[in-house]
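User: Here's a protein and a ligand (tetrahydrodeoxyuridine). What would the complex look like?
Assistant: Let me lay out the input and then the predicted complex.
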Amino acid sequence: MEAYELWQKAVKAREFSYSPYSGFKVGAALLCKNGEVVQGCNVENSAYGPSNCAERTAFFAAVAKGQREFEAIAIAGGKEELVMCYPCGVCRQVMAEFCDPDNFHVICGMNKEKLEILTLRELLPKSFEMQD
Ligand code: THU
């Protein structure tokens, strides 16, 4: 699937954002290796701490459906207008749990002309991995 097509699904997922505290709406579209796309949005909470980012919502929903292998994730975020929205550190670590850092792509953008495609390794170099 083309990057822009996946990103448009993130824009669509953003419509479901529950973000009354920050007003910052984020959507994510996670492309699984079998071609399925799982969407997610940020879900906030009045206690703030229990809030969940769009990217993790998508990952956890996908894993809960039996998906374990992923190609790419697209992200769209902003209050009214879209801005460049890069994944937070916690979401990068969740991606690292399941994805090959050199082959998993993170697509961040504001519109068709401004789409950035990064590898997970670029976003999270030298990440933690459990050694035995
Ligand atoms: N947020 C995401 O959902 N994804 C990101 O990549 C960055 C931040 C959410 C968390 C919170 O609900 C709101 O955006 C403002 O931080």
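Summary: The domain at 3-123 is CATH 3.40.140.10 (Cytidine Deaminase; domain 2).
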